[in-house]
Design goal:
Blueprint lengths: L1 H4 L1 H8 L3 H24 L11 E6 L4 E2 L5 E2 L1 H12 L3 E4 L2 H10 L4 E5 L3 H6 L9 E7 L5 H104 L6 H58 L10 H40 L5 H30 L7 H28 L6 H40 L6 H70 L5 H12 L2 E7 L6 H24 L5 H4 L5 H31 L6 H26 L1 H18 L11 H7 L3 H13 L5 H28 L4 H4 L6
Parallel strand pairs: 1-4, 1-5, 6-7
Antiparallel strand pairs: 2-3, 5-6
GO molecular function, one term: ABC-type transporter activity
Protein name: YhgE/Pip domain-containing protein
Membrane topology: Multi-pass membrane protein
């Protein structure tokens, strides 16, 4: 019971004096300092990346796109960085950036090469080149600073890749749109071909009508010729009667002779008309023969168009337009389905694989777990985004159609519009089941030939008639008798002549109709030629537009497509270089933990050794001798601490020292600085308060020395005290001796630590001199450890 109630006795002892009460407050606040200070310092360094100094060098040269537009993509990237300020961007030149990386002015350097714009522009061509951004790090500045820089550059590359992919997708969709326009123009050409074919049919109809009229005129001409022959017979009978009467009537001989002459002249005119009709019939026959040749060429051209659409029968190498479009549409649909399956699979993998990775790293280092999880999320998100963009490009979105629907619509347009028109045109010119255009024109040519032959024969008969009428006139002059019979014969001869005149008139009218029909036939043939030319022009335009549309669609081998897809999916690459790389995370954090170890080692040393032994203080030795005698065993222990720590870290842990002797010497300097500094604090404030102050300084330095995250991404308070902490210079110097890249910072660290050591020894000597005056508090300190 007494032991239970005696616990307050020890606490009451600490409440007697101000110093002991302050010790109670310090004991209460130390966990708060450890917890709150570290959480505050490292709350979210990534939110302060805009304070991380970074050099940007822009050597990009402007490039020209395929449509003649000049682009400055490097300038656009720099302007975007300056506007958004994701980092503390400084745009400078190569020399300043390199010097800044070496001196620690910049944590890393981003360099845009001169061919950056030209490489981005090439992504829309058949031979794309991956654009590159050169990044230079220096782990001697800060290992975690390089890690933060790498993550920031990956984020920047992701954003630039998304922007570039959007531009490339827009160009691809524009190309498909142009191909669509070409097919629309091909459709217009097919419509023009259909209109020409319709005019060709109308011309053929007019040609048939003209041929019918020509036939009717020929019939009427034959009738008139028959009537002329009948009249000539009656005339012959009358002349015979006149001949019989001429024996008795010679007076009418002169009149008979005159009438015979007139009849001969009329017969000659008839012969001339028949000759003209024969010449026109011959010209008609030649025209129909030429028309037959042109129509045959038209039929052959339509046949080739038909084979181009349906393919050549029996030739599997030439399947035609329609099966090729159907096959392309099916392939695009399969590719679209595969792209969607890939995107879904990646999305599922993102969830399942991430859970597995988190479970695997659950017992590992938290920082390692966070970094691995962030890298994995970024890689899966980037891959999923690329697959989704590929799926959208093939399947289409609400704003833009995809490749597969476009090919399906193209195939449907060919099936429903182009193929029926070509089939009808082929049936009209190359039909094997009924009468086609070539057969009809052949029959017309044969009829024109027959008409020409008949007119030739008619011309021969007319000439014979004229000759006989001349003989009749000669015979009439010999008639000297038969006046009564001659008058009767002349009357009959007059009637026959009248009928001959009528027949000649009918023959003239028939010839005029024949001429009109021939003119109509010529007009129809002209329209037929015009329609054929228009049909040929339409077919040519259709072929050109289809070829142009096919040329605008991508056509490359599978290997080239793989290269293009790989380049377009990753249009920008980061070419990273580390001037002084740390081999591992352990080597990257080694300067910080070694500095921590040397401070703690000094603290433990002064827990074992008395900073101001009472026996020495009572001697007559000078203060500097007392301080030297106290520091000698401490420095001997320090030497062992440094050698053992460096040896185990090298041979057991695996840390390689770029400058081994430099690392040993500088570690000794750091240890001496920390040892003398803690001795001076304890000499001034006393052993127990001095150790407490050393612990508080340790906590402050761990948060502000920049050993983990760069001081630039910590709160402003730690940035202000950063350059006043000796551990800051210890970390910077050890980074350069361990990782490499020795320059002025190591010299500055040596000078600063040397000055702190000298100042600490001087302070210890002064404090020792003052403490050699003893009093009650010296004999009975309020607080002792």
């Amino acid at each position: 019971m007494f032991a239970w109630n005696s616990h307050g006795t020890e606490l009451k002892r600490f409440l007697r004096l101000p110093l002991t009460r302050a010790a109670i407050v310090a004991i209460l606040l130390i966990p708060l300092l450890y917890g709150a200070m570290y959480v505050w310092a490292f709350w979210d360094p990534t939110e302060r990346l805009r304070d991380l100094p970074v050099a940007v060098v822009n050597n990009d040269i402007a490039a020209t796109t395929a449509d003649g537009k000049t682009v400055h993509i490097g300038d656009d990237v720099v302007a975007n960085l300056q506007e958004e300020q994701p980092l503390d961007i400084t745009v400078t030149n190569d020399d300043d950036a390199k010097r800044g990386i070496e001196s620690g002015k910049y944590y890393f350097m981003m360099k845009i090469p001169k061919d950056f714009s030209s490489d981005i522009v090439s992504l829309g061509t058949q031979n794309p080149d991956q654009a590159k951004i050169d990044v230079v790090y220096n782990d001697a500045n800060s290992f975690l600073g390089s890690i933060l820089g790498q993550n920031a550059m990956k984020e920047l590359r992701t954003r630039l890749t998304a922007t570039v992919n959007e531009e490339v997708s827009s160009k691809m969709l524009n190309g498909l749109s142009q191909a669509h326009d070409g097919l629309n123009q091909a459709h217009d050409g097919a419509a023009q071909l259909s209109a020409g074919t319709q005019q060709l049919g109308e011309g053929n109809g007019r040609l048939a009508d003209g041929a019918h009229e020509l036939n009717s005129g020929a019939i009427r001409l034959a009738t008139g010729a028959s009537q002329l022959a009948s009249g000539a017979t009656q005339l012959k009978n009358g002349i015979d009667a006149a001949y019989d009467g001429s024996l008795a009537v010679s007076v009418g001989t002169g009149k008979i002779a005159g009438g015979a002459n007139l009849l001969a002249q009329g017969s000659q005119q008839l012969t001339n008309g028949i000759t003209s009709a024969g010449a026109g019939s011959a010209a008609l026959h030649n025209g129909t023969t030429q028309l037959l040749g042109k129509v045959t060429l038209l039929a052959n051209g339509v046949k080739q168009l038909y084979y181009g659409v349906h393919g050549v029968p029996g030739d599997p190498s030439n399947p035609g337009l329609q099966p090729s479009l159907t096959q392309a549409s099916a392939g695009a649909q399969q590719l679209a389905a595969g792209a969607k399956t890939l995107a879904d699979g990646l999305s599922a993998m993102q969830t399942n694989s991430l859970d597995t990775l988190i479970a695997a790293l659950e017992n590992g280092d938290p920082l390692t777990k966070q970094i691995a999880e962030a890298k994995f999320r970024a890689a899966i998100a980037q891959t999923t985004q690329g697959a989704q963009q590929l799926s959208d490009g093939l399947n289409g979105t609400s704003q833009t159609p995809g490749l597969a629907p476009s090919l399906a619509a193209m195939s449907s347009a060919v099936d429903t519009k182009l193929v029926p028109g070509v089939d009808q045109l082929y049936a009209g010119t190359n039909s094997t089941t009924g009468e086609n255009l070539v057969t009809a024109v052949s029959k017309l040519d044969a009829g024109a030939g027959a008409l020409n032959n008949g007119l030739v024969q008619l011309q021969g008969g007319s000439q014979t008639l004229t000759q006989k009428l001349g003989e009749l006139s000669s015979g009439a002059q010999t008639l000297n008798q038969g006046t009564v019979q001659l008058s009767s014969g002349l009357d009959k001869l007059s009637s026959g002549a009248q009928r001959a005149e009528d027949a000649a008139g009918q023959l003239a009218q028939g010839s005029e109709k024949l001429r009109d029909g021939s003119a109509t036939l010529a007009d129809g043939a002209t329209q037929l030629a015009d329609g054929s030319k228009q049909a040929a022009d339409g077919a040519g335009e259709l072929a050109n537009k289809l070829a142009e549309g096919a040329g605008k669609l991508p056509a490359a081998s599978s290997d080239v497509i793989k290269v293009q897809a790989s380049t377009i999916s990753q249009p920008i690459a980061l070419e990273s270089h580390n001037n002084n790389p740390a081999d591992s995370w352990g080597e990257g954090f080694a300067p910080f933990f070694m500095s921590l170890a040397l401070w703690v080692g000094s603290l433990i040393t002064w827990l074992l050794l008395r900073p101001l032994p009472s026996r020495l203080m009572l001697t007559s030795a000078s203060s500097w001798r007392i301080v030297a005698s106290v520091l000698q065993p401490a420095l001997a222990l320090l030497t062992g601490q440094v050698l053992i720590m460096l040896g185990v870290m090298h041979w057991a842990v695996g840390v390689d020292y770029t400058h081994c002797l430099g690392t040993i010497a500088f570690s000794m300097l750091v240890g001496v600085t920390f040892m003398t500094m803690q001795h001076a604090i304890q000499a001034v404030f006393g052993a127990a308060p001095g150790k407490l102050i050393a612990i508080v300084l340790l906590m402050l330095q761990l948060a502000s020395a920049g050993g983990t995250y760069p001081a630039d991404v910590t709160p402003r308070f730690f940035q202000d005290v950063h350059s006043w902490m000796p551990m800051t210079y210890a970390v910077e110097g050890l980074r350069e001796t361990i990782t490499g890249g020795v320059e002025t910072r190591l010299v500055v660290a040596i000078v600063v630590l040397g000055l702190v050591t000298v100042a600490s020894i001087a302070t210890s000597i002064i404090a020792t001199s003052r403490r050699r005056v003893w009093n009650v508090s010296t004999l009975h300190p309020a607080l002792a450890l």
